[in-house]
Specification:
2 domains, 52% helix, kinase, nucleotide-binding, 9 helices, alpha+beta, ATP binding, histidine kinase, 10 strands, Heat Shock Protein 90, EC 2.7.13.3
């Protein structure tokens, strides 16, 4: 996967995580708002129930029981008759009107639609040991015009009732004992719409943030692509210039060779060699397969000492065998690393070469060093460290790129040990087998 693909994958993962966090946060906000609104609605419902208890004054429980008992003694009393006599009585209608009025007063200005109901759901005759109230058919004492759909329990009541019933037909007194259970329930019917009204601003802000992040990412990708195209064009231009310089350099070499040797010709030869080195550093292709010998290594190090008189170069060579490394490759590595040391204010350079089961090169200087955050980029083609001192130093930013390419061509590794103002050490290891 390319760099752009990695960026897209990383952004997608981060975006999905952020989206999940936003959804989780909104979901939690929804639940908290629902809990708070139901709490407020319950307080209103409680206050209405307290007021209704004052107005009810022991409303009809005993008379209702007498009525049920009477129907029970007549046997075969139907559920419809019971509901007709209890729920549609004038007193029930009166209390329903009262509770609607109270609820309207309590919810005025809140936007709440609260349904409230008080009912008896069980009457157990202790004498007959039977349930007098038909299953799932509670006696509604009063309720709001808005009916409960699911309902939340406010409170439950349970009490014993002693009823004295005088039967005038048979001139007898009858006593009944029963256990009565009642409950009060409420429901905030428009809770969902109220929550949505409260969390809409939060949703809009969250959505706006996500859209803005997508917009910024899209713009960033476009800028990166534009910069990459510009860099690619720059690389192509530099490579083309270097290629075009080969012809005039060759012409100059023939021209210098054909004239009489003078002081000027020596100067021209040095300048032509310098041009050749610059062109070679831009696109070098290894042309020879001659393996470097110990003597050639010593000769080249001496050339480096002569070429960089401002540097104190020390070298340690341990040479057992060389099975792979060519002269051209070694000279390219050493010349570019020593040239960098010279450019970046080094005074001393130490070179250690070891040719055994592996070829190991250790080049250490006491120059300006390379900041840690820049070390991963210095091997990129045309890359130069962004610091003030570098503006005064000439270079194309290809030396370390060529070193890295050469090392990788031999399946080797290169490591940097450095820091700002602490000098630089390059550790290179290459296989030494055919």
């Amino acid at each position: 996967m390319n760099k752009k693909g990695n960026i897209l994958l990383l952004f997608s993962c981060c975006f999905l995580i952020l989206l999940g966090l936003q959804v989780f946060y909104i979901h939690n906000s929804y639940q908290l708002e629902e809990k708070e609104l139901n709490r407020e609605a319950r307080l209103i419902a409680d206050s209405v129930l307290v007021e209704m208890e004052h107005l009810k004054k022991g409303m009809r429980e005993d008379s209702l029981i007498k009525h049920l008992l009477k129907l029970d003694t007549q046997e075969r009393a139907t559920d419809k008759i019971i509901q007709y006599n209890l729920n549609l009585s004038k007193s029930t209608e009166h209390f329903n009107q009262l509770i609607d009025q109270l609820m309207e007063q309590r919810t005025k200005g809140t936007g709440f639609r609260i349904a409230l109901k008080n009912e008896i759901y069980s009457i157990n005759d202790l004498r007959l040991k039977k349930e007098l109230l038909p299953p799932e058919t509670p006696i509604v004492l009063y309720e709001t015009k808005d009916k409960i759909e699911k309902g939340n329990l406010i409170n439950e009541g349970k009490w014993n009732s002693d009823v004295h019933h005088q039967n005038t037909d048979q001139s007898t007194d009858e006593y009944y004992k029963s256990v009565i259970k009642s409950r009060s329930m409420f429901e905030l019917l428009n809770v969902r719409s109220l929550i949505i009204q409260k969390i809409i601003p939060l949703c809009v802000i969250s959505l706006s943030i996500l859209i803005f992040l997508l917009y910024l990412f899209r713009k960033t990708l476009k800028n990166i692509e534009l910069q990459n195209r510009k860099i690619a064009q720059l690389h192509t231009t530099i490579d083309s210039i270097a290629h075009e310089l080969n012809t005039p350099i060759t012409t100059l070499k023939f021209a210098i060779a054909s004239v009489q040797e003078t002081t000027s010709t020596h100067l021209l030869e040095r300048q032509v060699r310098k041009l050749e080195h610059i062109v070679a550093s831009i696109h070098t292709v290894e042309q020879t397969t001659d393996l470097v010998t110990e003597q050639e290594i010593k000769q080249f190090i001496q050339q480096l000492k002569n070429s960089y008189p401002s540097l104190t170069i020390t070298a340690t060579i341990q040479f057992n065998k060389n099975e792979r490394l060519t002269k051209q490759a070694l000279e390219l590595i050493l010349s570019n690393l020593v040239d960098n040391s010279s450019k970046y204010k080094a005074n001393n350079v130490e070179i250690r070469l070891s040719f055994g089961t592996r070829v190991e090169l250790l080049i250490t200087d006491d120059g300006m060093g390379i900041p840690k955050e820049e070390q991963q980029h210095v091997f990129e083609k045309y890359y130069r460290i962004s610091r003030t001192e570098n503006h005064e130093i000439n270079g194309l930013g290809v030396g370390l790129y060529l070193v890295k390419n050469t090392v990788e061509r031999y399946n080797g590794t290169v490591e940097i040990i450095s820091g700002s103002g602490k000098g630089t050490t390059f550790k290179i290891a290459l296989p030494n087998e055919k």
